Amino acid sequence: MSSTERGQREQNKSAAFHCGEHRGKVAANTKKSVGFKMVFPPGGHINTGKKWGWMRGSIVYQVHRLWQNVNEIGTSKHEAKAVARANGARTWHDIGKSMGVKSHGTADAYRSVWREILRHAKAERGLKDSELLSGEDVRKYLVEKIEDGVAHATISKYFAASEKLELALNREAQKKGAERKYDFSADLKMVRQEAKDLARFEGSRAYVAPELLVSAVHGEQYNLAASMQREGGARVSEVNHLTKDHLRGLQPDSQTGAAKGWAYIKGKGGKKRDIGFSGETYARLEKAVEIGRFEFDKNAYRQELKAAAERTGQKYEGSHGLRWSWAQERHQELQQHGLSYEQALSQISQEMGHERSDITEHYLR
């Protein structure tokens, strides 16, 4: 058998597996997910009367399959617009949402975002089937992108890709006779409000007076979260939902020798690292997790941070602005302790959980 034939054979076997044709005998089992019931009878095929379970396999495979539903490369854009209007679309935005993808460049960009969204949902809550993707999953992904300080043009691309993913899911569900209707509009509207703070801004997002800002944050849980972001350079998602298991005790900073309290976190993309705080902030965290989990509402936290910025006469730069401030100050601190510019950049890149130093350098403007 030639290598080509072997490759084709493996591809056919993989496709058959993903379609549920060779899953073997599975004991009857029932589980609940997102408000509906999924029943797995012998043979592994789902039988609920709603045809759930039609999207399985790797993320790459699922994205490829969903892509087929919006692949309109080579078709007439004018005809697609006419069909959209005939189906009730009134605004240009509605028309765009109802149309598939017409160019190869857009296709590549959108598929990349889709894969990121699904990987994020998998890391956040163990999601394996794209059919179970929710607007909340998409919103959390987009919020994290905003917190990372992406450019306005980039976040706009993410919004467009998310809307096209909604269309692809609805077309797939319709093909399979599933009753689910995907609608991400409410969640996207919430994130668009926050994205306005980007205001097509490409400069530094560091706060002018971060210490003053944190001191003006009301509420112990919000003030503690702000303090940890300010002192540890953490993302807001990384200081939420902490427990005793995350505490690492008091140890000197390996670079400066300063005494710090350390917490173990699992950051973006599942990357694990320790972040350090002042002894006072660490003591507050210890107290907060004595009775269980330290957690807070991130939207309410951002609103309080915005109010604190107004109270202190500063421009609101989002919770991520505290991460910017930390990066700039940490870079200077490390150089004062003998590291070169590049050495300090590499060190804080690791401490921020970045894969590349050029991403970190963006924070040093």
N-to-C order of helices and strands? HEEHHHHHHHHHEEEHHHHH
β-strand amount:
5-15%
| Measured distance between first and last alpha carbons | 58 Å
Q: What structural class should be given to the helix and strand makeup?
A: mainly alpha
Strand line-up of the largest beta sheet: 3-4-5
Report the total helices.
15
Sheet bearing the most strands, described?
A: 3 strands, antiparallel
Q: Provide the number of structural domains.
A: 2
Briefly summarize what is shown.
This protein has 365 residues and is mainly alpha-helical. It is built from 15 helices and 5 strands. It has helices at 3-18, 59-67, 77-86, 92-98, 104-125, 135-147, 152-176, 185-195, 210-215, 220-232, 279-288, 298-311, 320-336, 341-352, 357-361; strands at residues 29-33, 36-40, 247-252, 259-266, 272-277.
